[in-house]
Amino acid sequence: MIDYTCAHAAPINSKIFLLGGGSKIVKIYDTETDQVSRVSDMLEKRDNCGVTVVGGKIFVTGGVSESSGPSLMTSECYCPLRNKWERIPEMPRPLHRHGSVSMRIPIYQRTDRVSPRTPRTMTSSEEVTSPGIT
Fold this sequence. Notes:
Blueprint: E1 7-12, E2 15-20, E3 26-30, E4 35-39, E5 50-54, E6 57-61, E7 75-79, E8 84-88, E9 99-102, E10 107-114, E11 122-129
Antiparallel strand pairs: 1-2, 2-3, 3-4, 5-6, 6-7, 7-8, 9-10, 10-11
């Protein structure tokens, strides 16, 4: 089951893909037919991941597979035409609770988090992921 409070939406044309939320499950809402269906599951269970769409494909980065688990470095890509998920190169470092935005290629990811050493200090970082899209 998807935890909809932590899930992400990824729009492609008239369809909205709902994914993440501590699950591998991916649901799709077709705005033209008003129908909900499932597509292929993600390769890895993810929560608090980054999601963006580039070139009609969905890119999912990082997150956590368990609520108390470590951040993930892994990334995957979904091709709606083939209904298939594929692993793509890992990120330079593990991330969760980060945002992803695409402005063509590469994908930029940003995270702001409280430093564990000094709780009142915020740190920011920007990562660039070039997933080798063709």
